Amino acid sequence: MSNYVNPLSLVAATPMTQQKSSTGGSSWFEAMAQAWGQALDKQAALIQEKSDAINAPGGSDTPSSITELTTESLKMSFLSNSSHTSISTVGQALETMARKQ
């Protein structure tokens, strides 16, 4: 019987030493998920800002403003899909490495 441990699985489970998150998570996987969350929050705030500008009394509901809002919404969709794909893929890879130990 072998006692081999895949080095990548050790890296995935290793706590980060430089910075701890406010939620207590400390692995690079959690840091990646939090970074995606922050990017999505920032994009959502931008969409809200553009939407509020259009809906405000006397707001600018010109075709260019609507197009900008649509563009930001599509960017949100792209970021959301990308975050889901990356987190799922890395999670599945970590699960596969854990099973092979």
Characterise the protein shown here.
- Helix 2 (28-55) runs antiparallel to helix 3.
- This protein is 71% helix and 0% strand.
- With 101 residues, the chain is mainly alpha-helical.
- The radius of gyration is 20 Å and the shape is elongated.
- It has helices at 7-13, 28-55, 63-99.
- The chain contains three helices and no strands.
Low-confidence stretches: none
Measured distance between first and last alpha carbons: 12 Å
Structural class of the secondary structure composition? mainly alpha
Task: Give the helix tally.
Answer: 3
Strand content: under 5%
Number of strands: 0
What's the overall average pLDDT, rounded? 83
Shape: elongated
| Quaternary structure | single chain
Biggest sheet statistics: none
The secondary-structure element order is HHH
Rg, alpha carbons: 20 Å
**Helicity level, as a percent range?**
over 70%
List the helices and strands and how they pair.
Layout: H1 7-13, H2 28-55, H3 63-99
Give a brief outline of the structure.
The chain is mainly α.
